[in-house]
Amino acid sequence: MLDYPKNQIDFEKQFSSETQCRKYLFELRFGPGWVCERCGSKEHWRQSRERLTCVGCRHEISPTRGTVFHGSHLPLMVWFRAAWWITNQKQGISALGLQRALGLGSYRSAWLMLQKLRASMVRSGRDRLKGEVEVDETMVGGHQSNTINTNPKSNKHMVMIAAEKIGKKTGRIRMKLVHESGIFELMAGVEEMVEPGSLVETDGWHAYRQLPSRGYRHKRVVAKTVAGDALLPGLHRVASLFKRWLKGTHHGRYERKHLQRYLDEFVFRFNRRTSLSRGLLFQRLLENSIQKQAPRYREIVREPEKPHYMAL
Fold it and tell me: Is 136 within 8 Å of 202 (Cβ atoms)?
């Protein structure tokens, strides 16, 4: 495993040049021994900007191809510093704060970097939650009340939360933006976030009665049997922490089309809250960043379409 920076001084020493950043990214992606994906040869020579050319078939490979960093006009040094600032700040950083920290001339560049790195915080093929899992919905934005408004232009949006219960503690979590609290959307959310066979604990909402038919064990907790404050307490804490984080770090300002990425960032931070090293979080973010291509600008700013579910 590659050494990750333990503190700011280590980071500056380890990534003080573009060559060091590319070498680190290459070893992180391909390991200590490179093997050509076409012919299997282990012999190669280096070209400019750390490109490799296979001796056997002349195939060229770049450490940034197929990653979040591909096609960016910004140097890898800037991307590495952005990833460091995002993970080193316990509560995260806004686009304006990142622009000032990196000395970028464009707010849009800082904002786009943040959005692409947030997209990388969701690891490809990540495991679903399992064991005993609490599931519920909460409203984000606007004045909190029992009124549900699913209008895309409204500043109040429904978020589905799932959290593992480990005794009285909360384990891993998942969060998903949903359009409504109907049966099909909630069941799709549970199937996406929770492993079948798990014990799913919910409130008395009728939509969750379909859980046993989807392969889950179901436990209903209703207000008549449990005091309101004790009803799914883990989820209440997660929802409260997210709203406080969104208001404190981003001043509560967001658009619906970007809300899922804020949820993904909060989940990334919450699930790694016990990590003793911020440098390890930096490395984890880089590992996720090389696993998939970054979304394009038009994909980031596009309003997501409402999903359609087939009736069973």
Answer: yes
pLDDT on residue 308: 55
Kindly report, residue by residue over 204-241, the tens digit of the pLDDT: 899 999 999 999 999 998 866 555 556 788 899 999 99
Measuring CA to CA, how many Å separate 175 from each of 31, 112, 187, 295?
33, 22, 14, 20
Amino acid 311: pLDDT: 46
125 burial type by CB count under 10 A (0-12 exposed, 13-18 middle, 19+ buried): exposed
- Please identify every stretch of the chain with a pLDDT value under 50, giving residue numbers as ranges: 144-150, 152, 310-312
Rounded Cα–Cα distance for residues 174 and 26 (Å): 31
Q: What is the pLDDT of residue 189?
A: 94
Name the residue ranges covered by the structural domains of the chain.
132-274
Q: Which of 251, 275, 253, 300 is nearest to 120 (CA)?
A: 300
Model pLDDT, residue 144: 47
Cα(83)–Cα(13) distance, integer angstroms = 16
Residue 149 has what pLDDT? Answer: 47
* Model pTM score: 0.84
> For residues 120 and 115, what is the distance between their CA atoms, to the nearest angstrom?
9
Q: What is the CA radius of gyration of the chain?
A: 22
Q: Which residues lie below 8 Å from residue 249, measured CB to CB, with a gap of 6+?
A: 91, 92, 93, 94
List the helix and strand counts (H, then E) for the chain: 10, 8
Which residues, 6+ apart, have CB-to-CB distance to 136 below 8 Å? Answer: 160, 161, 202, 203, 232, 235
Residues facing residue 53 across a β-bridge: 45, 60
CATH homologous superfamily for the domain 132-274: Ribonuclease H-like superfamily/Ribonuclease H (3.30.420.10)
Residue 37 CB: number of other CB atoms within 10 A? 11
Sign of CA dihedral 17, 23, 24, 26: positive
